[in-house]
Amino acid sequence: MPNVHPVITGLASSLVLATLAACHVSVNVGNTTGDVPGMSAITESDLRRDLFAMASDSMRGREAGTPDELRAAAWVAERAREAGLRPAGDDGTYFQWWPMRRVRPSDESRVLLDGAPLVLWRDVSITAAVDTTLDLSLVWVGTAGADSLRRLDLRGKAVAAMIVPPARPPVSWISLRPWRYGGLAIRERAAALTAAGAAAVLLVADDSANDVFPTLAVQNRRGTFNVDTTGAARVPARAPVLWAPNAMRDRVARAGRLALTLRAESFVYPSANVVAVAPGRDNRLGGEYVLFSGHHDHDGVRNTIAGDSIWNGADDNATVSVAMLAIGRAFVKAPGRRAALFVWHGAEERGLLGSRWYAAHPTVPRERIVAVLNGDMIGRNAPDSAALLGVQPPHRNSAELAQIALDANARVTGFKLDTIWDRPTHPEGWYFRSDHLPYARAGIPSLMFSTLLHADYHTPRDEPSRIDVPKLARMTRWMYATGWAVAERGARPAVDPGFRLER
């Protein structure tokens, strides 16, 4: 964990303990004091039960574009119905269906070195889908740098080379650096070789990239995903780039010819946002919405690590999914003046696709969404630390909403807040990687609640048994208290004048 910085000081420990133990908590927000009467509906036992169900092996990691994601969506919808939330999706259902386009390299593709086939995804990986048939002489350039490449005639040839460290190796927290090193090194090396005229590129992993070959090969094989709006696949015309593990180095270096028959495949899959609502009690404000946001998908069944191939995604993002169910129970027990809208997005791990779709095609009038409270990974790391993103410029788009959340934390949960990850200089760019982003770009006041990355992030070790359930309950109460305060106040949070979100 990075250093933790409290945003407020002077809270007596006795006050913090008293408020944590309370079932009926008061929150002072923007000079408006109001009760939080539904707090007792948020219990550790409910959160634990739902968490162990949603992140169980039977859910198979809830990968977008598979029946497992749809099973998870159906499970969430049924739990929302049991909680008393009303359907708010399409056609009176809990679901908003939308099309997802996938483009991937076909397993029917063929790669031959000197006429001998390589085993796809074991001996060699295709980095991006491409349709081409080539039979070219192969030139080995090893670790040659830019100056040496300029002296070689590589035009129209296949070029084999070693992966070399990128010009600016990526900085990353926890366990992500090797994965990012591999991706960046491949892109930079391939770009240099194609700029020198290579018609095809075959790279061999150095020691650092070699460690993540299985993980990156799985990702390459899955291809790319996007919201489908055209009904047609787009496969860019480009020089094919392949890479091989270090064990293939001698074989590649000796080869004189590379033959490729590469094919791309495209599919359209259904994905679903689950949408539910707790109606507001106020005749004037009940037609406005406080939107609670999370995602129900994760990474599915992938390459085996330490004997486990199911990437359960307990923290990412079953913690928030079950927290939203608990918050829903609280609003059903004690409705707010404004309605509480809950959107469990699909395909977040494929590029925030579900939230991009909902922000563009909301099932309620967009102008009536007064705030978005998004959560991503809220159940790990030090028990007393958390983070709130969207509080510091340029990420902050509503100083009023940020203050509401900070005040709720001060009164209800007392977390020491890490301010580093909300800075635009943070190497993770964490603010840009979750479902509040499309809403912020649409001009809706938005925040992200998180307890940040950890060593089990995007690995099979993100299991429900590793979640700190008491901390998850505290984070759930914080999100609820923030949303309750927004629901109760007379004026909606204002967007900061001149807000422009650019990265």
TrEMBL record:
One of its GO terms (biological process) is proteolysis. InterPro entries: M28_fam, Peptidase_M28. It comes from the Bacteria. Residues 273-480 form the Peptidase M28 domain. Keywords: Signal. Gene3D superfamilies: 3.50.30.30, Zn peptidases. Residues 1-21 form the signal peptide. One of its GO terms (molecular function) is metalloexopeptidase activity. This is Peptidase M28. It comes from Gemmatirosa kalamazoonensis. The lineage of its organism: Bacteria, Pseudomonadati, Gemmatimonadota, Gemmatimonadia, Gemmatimonadales.
